Amino acid sequence: MVPTIVPGYAAILALIFIALSVRVIRLRRSTRVPVGTSRNAELERAVRVHGNFAEYVPLALLLLAFAEMQGFPGWSIHLLCLALLIGRSIHAYGLSRQNEDFRLRVAGMAMTFTVAGLTSAMLLARVSRIL
Fold it and tell me: Do 72 and 122 form a contact (C-beta atoms < 8 A)?
């Protein structure tokens, strides 16, 4: 089965990734820091927001695509994808703030971990029935 739901969410997440990338590039230009962060707090924060997004989104999308290919109900795939999108968005927003609200970071990570954990459990349950 070819995924038809996950690609749409992947495209939206890719646009967010591009926006986060552009933000880092602009900050690098304005601070004249081509590599690293030179201990610039705003640049460090932007680099970590971008990096954290890059660290978690690909694995989550891969798991979600596998779940969709395994034939899990469309509503469950939409729900998990939406949770990933919301979780990553609020995490990026929370971490981007100089005067951050730590609750947003925690909520965003909790949603991301929940999506990855639930999707992993769904896939493992399906595999264990096959074996």
Answer: yes
Q: What is the dihedral of CA 6, 15, 87, 73, to 10 degrees?
A: -10
What is the DSSP-derived secondary structure letter of residue 37? -
Instruction: Say what the pTM is.
Output: 0.91
Over residues 13-64, the pLDDT tens digits come to 999 999 999 999 999 999 888 888 888 888 999 999 999 999 999 999 999 9
Q: Can you tell me the mean pLDDT for 108-120? A: 98
CA nearest to 84, candidates 104, 65, 100, 61: 61
**Which residues, 6 or more positions from 29, have their beta carbon under 8 angstroms from its beta carbon?**
none
Which tokens hold the place of 68?
């969709």
**CATH for the stretch 6-130:** 1.20.120.550
8 Å CB contact between 91 and 112:
yes
Nearest one of 84, 127, 126, 131 to 109, comparing CA atoms: 84
